[in-house]
Amino acid sequence: xxxFIAIDIPxxxxxxxxxxxxELRAVAPNVKWVRDGNLHLxxxxxxxxxxxxxxxxxxxxxxxxxxxxxxxxxxxxxxxPNAKRPKIFWAGVNSSPDxxxxxxxxxxxxxxxGYTRDVRPFTPHLTLAxxxxxxxxxxxxxxxxxxxxxxxxxxxxSEFHLIxxxxxxxxxxxxxxxxxxxxxxxxx
Length: 188
Ligand code: 2AM
Fold this sequence. Notes:
Blueprint: E1 2-8, H1 11-27, E2 32-33, E3 40-48, H2 54-62, E4 70-80, E5 88-95, H3 99-112, E6 125-130, H4 138-146, E7 151-157, E8 159-168, E9 171-181
Antiparallel strand pairs: 1-3, 1-8, 2-6, 4-5, 4-7, 5-6, 8-9
């Protein structure tokens, strides 16, 4: 099975993003747009995994804790690696400082199970589209430049998910296998 670990985006923010993207999708039909329901914040991509290892992964992930929930603010638009030769069109994610240590813990936990650490620093983003051809429609570039600071709203996060990705001809299909609440109960 092909696995990754991610945070879900609540429906109200998904629909805010979806309505903003309607116009952009129309001006860039040749770009591979991520389906609205598939938008998520990837924390760690595990890739092809022996199903027999799923229990060990879930055990490990269920012990991960952070002191309190954190706030994610979906804000800004841009391209990786840059606007000239875009590979990925993204919406930015600003978070309270607790996100990076949580991701580091997930990295450590998965490294202990034999997964390679990501060499690149974790840059939280929502992938909105992928480019498999060079070049970018002028109208897409212009709209993104004009909305580089556009805000899509914020939400509080207290759980992440282990997700299976099935690659189909119609696009990726994601199934949540298990959810992990990472917030420590406050002592009374
Ligand atoms: P991205 O959205 O940041 O591009 C499921 O495939 C998710 O895992 C994708 O959304 C993608 O995150 C992430 N991912 C990270 N590395 C990947 C890789 N080498 N191949 C496929 N997906 C990867």
